[in-house]
Amino acid sequence: MDIAALNSTKSLRRDVLKWMCLCFGFLSLAFGVFNLTVNNLPLLGYIEASFSIYCIYTFIALTRHPLQIWQSIVMCALISFIVVLATYLASPRNGVYVWSFALPVLYYLLMGKRYGFILSAAMLAAQIIILADKSSLSPFETFNLVLNLLCTYVSIWAISHVFEGSRSHFSKRLKNLALLDPLTGAGNRLSMSHYFEVELRDKSQLYVFLLDLDYFKLINDEHGHGVGDKVLVEVATLLRVALGRGYVFRVGGEEFALFSSFTSEEEALKAAEKIRTQVENTNFDIDGLSINITTSIGVAKFKSTNTLEGFVEQADKQLYKAKRFGRNKVYCKFKAEPDFEIATA
After folding, report:
1. Cβ atoms 319, 223 nearer than 8 A
2. What pLDDT shows up at residue 85?
3. What string of DSSP letters covers 116-158?
4. In the chain, which residues have pLDDT < 50?
5. Do residues 229 and 244 lie in contact, with contact meaning Cβ atoms separated by under 8 Å?
6. Residue 339: predicted pLDDT
């Protein structure tokens, strides 16, 4: 599965902003020329011409680079400013206020549900204040026209709100289905790749603990897979709590990978030993049974030349030693504190 496909919201916003820039780039240029030559609104004309240049620049930038959040913020701010300014300067008969009806859709698509609501409310309030202050209310002298315009704006606003809420909700659900192990709630291998390749920026102090539950097959054989599954769920919860800061991924039947940053090798080893001890000293109460289990742990420190596969492979080699030389141990490649029962490679 393509990791980039998980960022559907960002991809949608990038596409919306990109093609909106192309559209508004040419439209604002045309309106700028029109306001300079026909409507005698030079201030608005020059602003629209400048906005046109910015739109084309942003369109070109988005064809070459990923979307930045500030680009959406600036675009929403500029469009809002131009529409409000145009409504203030022009006569209501020019119908510039009609552009307000398109803005809730753009707000929600570019800024999400929360800020879409705030910006839509602010735009409605601003337009009402500006139009109410006009010396001539024509064509708003007809109550039916005012009511229809207001209901139309509110309807578009409501539809945009519901659509973005549903889209965001289902996007999160699909992402969870793709990234989470359905049994334990821990991340899966795809989630691990996404975290390592996309989310994680600073890997300089990154360590991975690769854990394997010792003799887990005996639990399945003696008590059934139902009990074994519940043990995995309890172990995953214990690992998240014991690790504190970091991420827990289930990468095999009874194998977990833990990623976290530590300031030193000694701190990483203490954390690994703490996890091993907690698993060993915990009796899991499963359906009236007291299940005790131990874990073997291989530890590796990230190197600048590591890929994710190479990084995990380093830890896997140390895990193999832990299982080969007695299990219920922590093994690593770097030098360990003598207090630990840790062999060095």
Report:
1. no
2. 92
3. HHHHHHHHHHHHHHHHHT-S--TTTTSHHHHHHHHHHHHHHHH
4. 335-345
5. no
6. 42
| Dist. CA 274–CA 92, nearest whole Å | 71
Pairwise CA distance, residues 119 & 137, whole Å: 25
Q: Return the pLDDT at 91.
A: 82
Longest dimension (CA), the chain: 90
Contact status, residue 147 vs residue 105, Cβ threshold 8 Å = no
Please identify which residue in the block is written with the tokens 């030349």.
305
> φ and ψ at 46, to 5 degrees?
-65, -40
Nearest 5°: the CA angle 167, 170, 176 is 140
User: How many residues does the structure list for the chain?
Assistant: 345
| Nearest residue to 232 via CA among 243, 248, 245 | 248
Centre a 10 Å sphere on the Cβ of residue 180 and count the other Cβ atoms it contains: 17
130 Cβ neighbours under 8 A, 6+ residues apart = 84, 87, 88
What is the residue whose two structure tokens read 């172990």? Answer: 235
* Cα–Cα distance, 191 to 251 (Å, whole number): 10
Which helix (H) or strand (E) segment is 329 a member of? Answer: none
Q: What is d(CA 324, CA 296) in angstroms, rounded to the nearest whole number?
A: 10
Can you tell me the distance from the alpha carbon of 242 to that of 234, in angstroms, rounded to the nearest whole number? 12
Cβ–Cβ under 8 Å, residues 109 and 16: yes
Sequence-separated (6 or more) residues with CB below 8 Å from residue 276? 294, 295, 297, 328, 329, 330
Q: Which residue has the tokens 């139309």?
A: 152
DSSP label of 198: I
pLDDT at residue number 173: 85
How far are the Cα atoms of 116, 158, 220 from residue 207, in angstroms, in the given order?
40, 47, 31
Distances (CA, A) of 345 to 204, 313, 314, 342: 22, 14, 11, 10
Closest CA to 20 of 74, 58, 73, 48: 58
- The model carries a pTM of 0.69
- The H-or-E segment that residue 249 falls in is strand 247-250
| Residues noted as catalytic | 254
